[in-house]
Design goal:
single chain; alpha/beta; Glutathione S-transferase Yfyf (Class Pi), Chain A, domain 2; 2 domains; 8 strands; about 45% helix
Amino acid sequence: MEFAFFPGCKIPYYQPQYGQAVQAVLGELGVGLAEMEFGCCGYPIRHQDKVAYLFTAARNLALAEQRGLELLTPCQCCFGSLRKAAHLLEEDQAARREVDALLADEGLSYRGETRVWHLLQVLGEKVGTEAVKAKVVRPFKDLKLAVHYGCHALRPSEIVQFDDPLAPSIFERLVELTGAKCVPWHRRLQCCGNPLWGKNDALALKLTAAKLNDAAAAGADYLCVACTYCQIQFDTVQSKVMGEMPGVARVPSVLYPQLLGLAMGLEPSRLGLSRNALGGGDLLEFQAAAQGA
């Protein structure tokens, strides 16, 4: 099983540990990742120039098609952007003709045959939960996680087709394969606040603080995410502003492939755990407790 690997723009610069952990875990599961010279998914210009957005996205899809591969991305924003572009290219034939002409200048063509998959979908649907569970050799014990879905993987549901947008369950099922327990919490489907960061920081932090307090009240030891932007907000931003948020609970965040990789017995260095701003070393204590049980 092989996919064209699309890390997007944010992961290589802001969250290299996310890409590192994805590659380590999927390698152990026998999933090949072909690295290609992709460009941006088009998301930043989607509201400025429709054709420029569609061309940027379609070029990536065409490159994957040229290799005969479907595309895998760990970034929910890129996932949603590429899925939306594929939908619009089928819906708007005038824009499709403009995009086709631009692609032809590079000797490329877009046929609409490449499906875009998010990491969680590949693990849950393509690899399968039984195959993933079979690789877990160092499960966690008594580790309670607040699973945070993020926005772009769930909506618009008719386009992304990720899971039930009102009652998703794929993430919880994958987390519990590691031995960790998912706590029910009221704000699990609400925004992390990152889209507002740099535009309205006060409101962004208000949203983040509400989520952190809710996760803590539910008894979570960690947040678990599978979204680049959410990890930036819950890890990098949280670490920078904790002193400016009196009364707000501190709840560190772990990327799902880091959690899974540890449960699979991979060394923390292979998963980039030390790059997490709020750390993650105490996750090993939950593993040690399970081993001593």
